[in-house]
Design a protein that fits this description.
The complex is a heterodimer of chains A (222) and B (79). By secondary structure, chain A is an alpha/beta fold. Chain A has 6 helices and 11 strands. The N and C termini of chain A lie close together (10 Å). Chain B has a 3-stranded antiparallel sheet, covered by helices on one side. The longest helix of chain B is centred in the last third of the chain and has 16 residues. The chains are: A alpha/beta (222), B alpha+beta (79). Chain B: InterPro entries: PurS, PurS-like_sf.
């Protein structure tokens, strides 16, 4: 699989994201936010965590309008895969590739700790390496992870089995404990927890590995 | 021409920062504050001199960047 990781001023999980993908066997290229085109033949575009453009105005708002993100939107419209983690999830909602928005944590505090993350569906390239109902140990690190979505969209997310992950114990006020959601065609995942920070024993756990392995495995099998 | 854009969380969307301010006002002894909503103000200095045209452009700016209309509403005033 060929993957691209977009790098913005303020990205700080870009190399961790690339490492997660490479360790799973992907061929990874970094893409600068000013690049107007993605490398040829890219299967997956990953938007990493961090504080793109200092989170000025709103988290992810300025990044979502960058040339590289406009290329990402075209990639997804063509049926390509995309993964957004933390700030990357905020960017994907700002581009409207994923529904909803991420608001300030209900407790108003920046949260940085491991959380229990329940796999809500195994029916996607991102979650096929897990069993539905399985509880993972994955870290969060965010100030604006409170997922908001209106009632109608929330019902659609439930009805279409598009909630990928929920928090075992809601840390930030997210509606229905949502920690990650899929696009309608299940090829775009946005999630607040950091699977790329849970791939080495040194990280304190390796529960994030199967996400990258499942994703890359999808392309090897095809 | 100057444009002033007020961006607020939509009614019905919980505003955690507004709630924190409300609680702080209560603990300072200000009784009777039933609700606080916190938003932001963005001032634009525009080269445009035609009000209608300026408003249309600022509206596009709001829809594209200045507000996230999933959770926020905006109000434009020109002077």
């Amino acid at each position: 699989m060929k993957a691209a990781v977009i790098v913005f001023p303020g990205s700080n999980c870009d190399r961790d994201m690339a490492e997660g993908l490479r360790k799973a066997g992907a061929d990874v290229e970094m893409v600068w936010h000013k690049d107007t085109d993605l490398p040829a033949g890219v299967d997956l575009v990953a938007v990493p965590g961090g504080f793109s453009f200092g989170d000025y105005l709103r988290c992810g708002a300025i990044a979502a309008n960058s040339p590289a993100c406009q290329a990402l939107v075209r990639h997804v419209e063509r049926g390509g895969y995309a993964l957004g983690v933390c700030n990357g999830f905020q960017v994907l909602t700002e581009t409207r590739l994923l529904p909803g928005a991420l608001m300030r944590n209900a407790g108003l505090k920046f949260l940085c700790k491991p959380v229990g993350l329940t796999v809500a569906t195994s029916d996607s390239a991102f979650t096929s390496g897990y069993n539905a109902g399985q509880v993972l140990n994955v870290p969060i690190a965010h100030h604006d992870g409170n997922y908001f979505v209106d009632d109608e969209t929330l019902a659609a997310l439930h009805g279409e089995d598009r909630i990928a992950f929920t928090y075992a114990q809601n840390p930030n006020g997210s509606r229905d404990d949502i920690a990650g959601v899929l696009s309608a065609n299940r090829r775009v995942l946005g999630m607040m927890p950091h699977p790329e920070r849970a791939i080495e024993d040194l990280h304190g756990g390796t529960d994030g590995r199967a996400l990258f392995a499942g994703l890359v495995g999808r392309f090897v099998a095809a | 021409m100057k444009a002033r854009v007020e961006v607020m969380l939509k009614a019905g969307v919980l505003d955690p920062q507004g709630e924190a301010v409300r609680a702080a006002l209560g603990s300072l002894g200000f009784a009777g504050v039933n609700g606080v909503r916190q938003g932001k103000v963005i001032e634009l200095d525009l080269a445009e001199t035609d009000a209608a045209s300026a408003e249309a452009t600022v509206r596009q700016m709001c829809e594209k960047l200045l507000a996230n209309t999933v959770i926020e509403s905006y109000r434009i005033s020109l002077s």
